[in-house]
Write a structure and sequence with these properties.
mainly beta, eight-stranded mixed sheet
Length: 241
């Protein structure tokens, strides 16, 4: 994030002469996005400028990319950034702090994130292609699209999920905690089978489109339905293909 000094120079005409008044004391933050890549050269603390390339600290308008490094990052405080990408080998610990994204969250196969007790809030698109999300904090997704799973990844999600989104896609994902989805979009979702829910799942449709939990013709158009795990069972497996 760059800082711009705003200077003002005013001219006044007083009694036939010119009076000049200058004011150089005002500064404003020009929130131009910077892309920061984690290098971890000084250790695991998120808040050290030397752990980032370029050197600095990601701010609320900045983009963060984390990959495989010797020293994995750990949040040192409540944090807000624009977007976050976790690539193969990335390992982010939130240390119980909350992390808020004004933009997109992308998690690729081979990445891990441990919320511990902190909450991860995604206000842009949430795309979990693979990897593991652990902890007891809540993953909240409120962007246009929310995606769990891909053709090359089978995510493992241990945390509660709350999604308020236009469309949601499920594919080969295991959820070990509760899932609460409110679908607001007008189109039919494009999901696939082999999704496992070890916790209760509630789906509410407030849009005109349908829930689609398979890639053929099994469409769910009811306004709300709920999976309650029976006392005699430990999970529900959706195998619609």
């Amino acid at each position: 994030m760059r800082t711009v000094i705003v200077s003002a120079l005013f001219f006044f005409v007083i009694a036939g002469g010119i009076f000049i008044y200058s004011n150089f004391g005002t500064s404003e933050d020009a929130k131009a996005a910077t892309t920061y890549t984690w290098n971890g050269s000084l250790g695991s603390e998120w808040g050290l400028t030397g752990n980032w390339t370029p050197s600095g600290l990601p701010g609320s308008s900045d983009i963060v990319i984390i990959g495989s490094t010797t020293n994995a990052p750990a949040l040192s405080d409540v944090t807000s950034i624009a977007s976050l990408t976790l690539n193969n080998g990335a390992n982010l610990s939130m240390n119980g702090n909350s992390l808020t994204l004004s933009g997109n969250f992308t998690m690729n196969t081979g990445a891990t994130i441990n919320l511990l007790t902190g909450g991860l809030t995604v206000n842009g698109n949430c795309t979990v292609n693979g990897g593991t999300i652990s902890g007891t904090g809540i993953l909240t997704a409120s962007g246009t699209t929310t995606v769990f799973g891909s053709s090359t990844g089978s995510p493992l999600v241990h945390v509660p999920v709350v999604a308020n989104t236009n469309s949601i896609t499920f594919r080969s994902t295991t959820f070990n905690s509760s899932v609460t989805v409110s679908k607001t979009g007008n189109g039919n979702d494009n999901s696939y089978g082999v999704n496992t829910f070890y916790g209760n799942a509630t789906f509410t449709n407030t849009g005109s489109g349908n829930f689609l939990f398979a890639n053929t013709t099994k469409i769910y158009s009811m306004r709300m339905f709920h999976f309650q795990i029976p006392e005699t069972e430990s999970f529900i497996l959706l195998t619609m293909m």
